[in-house]
């Protein structure tokens, strides 16, 4: 093994810092559960795979205008977090692993949420 000024560990694609962060968050959430159970807020979260087709998709000029995707490198996720008060007031945060979405998508999502 070569000596270097900084060591980088990889475990199945995860860096050591990400593993420590996940472990820290698990410990914090486990210790917070008694305090959260007395909270007047309702909290929810969800995640959904929004990965599109795996092949034959034009990459719209990224790197090469003629380039066609041949496989999936990363799966894409949509994540939602919601905090609600018992009287019905609520806040929703939605995050997509996507770029170049039109504003029409945002408008239509807001219309559907308001209709609920």
UniProtKB/TrEMBL annotation:
It comes from the Eukaryota. Residues 1-37 form the signal peptide. PANTHER family: CERAMIDASE, NEUTRAL CERAMIDASE. Keywords: Signal. One of its GO terms (cellular component) is membrane. One of its GO terms (biological process) is ceramide catabolic process. This is Neutral/alkaline non-lysosomal ceramidase N-terminal domain-containing protein. Residues 41-115 form the Neutral/alkaline non-lysosomal ceramidase N-terminal domain. InterPro entries: Ceramidase_alk, NEUT/ALK_ceramidase_N. GO terms for molecular function: N-acylsphingosine amidohydrolase activity.
């Amino acid at each position: 093994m070569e000596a270097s000024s900084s060591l980088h560990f990889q475990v199945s694609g995860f860096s050591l810092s990400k593993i420590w962060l996940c472990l820290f968050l698990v410990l914090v959430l486990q210790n917070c559960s008694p305090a959260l159970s007395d909270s007047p807020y309702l909290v929810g979260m969800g995640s959904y795979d929004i990965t599109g087709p795996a092949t034959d998709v034009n990459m719209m000029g990224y790197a090469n205008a003629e380039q066609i995707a041949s496989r999936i490198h990363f799966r894409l996720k949509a994540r939602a977090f919601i905090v609600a008060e018992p009287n019905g007031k609520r806040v929703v945060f939605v995050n997509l692993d996507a770029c170049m979405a039109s504003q029409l998508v945002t408008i239509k999502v807001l219309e559907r949420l308001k209709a609920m």
